Amino acid sequence: MVTKPRFLLTGKVPITIYRTIGVGGYVRGEWKDPEAEEIEREVNIQPLRYKEVMLLQDSQRTRQWWQLYCSEDLRMDQEEGINPDTGEVIEGWQADEFYWQGYRYKIMKVKNYSMGVLDHYSAQAVRVEITPN
C-alpha cells in the first residue's frame, strides 16, 4: 500500500504550477510560445538551507532558492532524447514554474522518493531573474 505524506506537522500551502505543454513554433512568421496549463499543488515550502546553498556554484549563491516538498509530481527541464537501452524516444518538456511572494520561480532540481512508504517529491526552485526590456 502506497502512503502519501500529508505534511500535517510541517504545514503546507497551495500554489499554482504553470506547466508548459508542447513546444513553441512559428505561426505566420511569428514565434508563439507553448501553452501553459495551471495545476494546483499543496507544498511545504522553505528556504534552502545554508549548507545546500554553499554547494551551489558561486554565481548561484546570491539568488533566492526555495526547497519544496510535495506528494504530487513536479517537473524540472527534460530534454528529448533516445533511451540507449530500448531505443525509445524520450519526450522532453520545460520545467514547472510558480509564483511565490510576488516573484516567479522555476523548478531546477527534482528528487522523486518512491519507496512505497510516504512517496513524495523534493524540489529546488530558483527565482527567475527580471531583465529590463
Descriptive keywords:
1 helix, 133 residues, mainly beta, 10 strands, single chain
Report on the structure:
The chain is mainly beta and 133 residues long. The protein has a domain at 44-127. Helix content is 4%, strand content 46%. It starts with 12 loop residues before the first strand and ends in a 6-residue tail after the last strand. The relative contact order is 0.23.
Give the helices and strands, then pairings.
Layout: E1 13-21, E2 25-27, E3 30-32, E4 35-47, H1 50-54, E5 65-70, E6 81-82, E7 89-90, E8 97-100, E9 103-113, E10 120-127
Antiparallel strand pairs: 1-4, 1-8, 2-3, 4-5, 5-10, 6-7, 8-9, 9-10
Structural class: mainly beta
Average predicted confidence as pLDDT: 86
The parts where pLDDT drops under 50 for at least 5 residues are none
What percentage of amino acids are in beta strands? over 45%
* Inertia-based shape: globular
Strand order of the largest sheet: 1-4-5-10-9-8
Approximate helicity band: under 10%
- Rg value: 17 Å
- Quickly count the helices: 1
Order of helices and strands: EEEEHEEEEEE
**Biggest sheet layout:** 6 strands, antiparallel, barrel
Total beta strands: 10
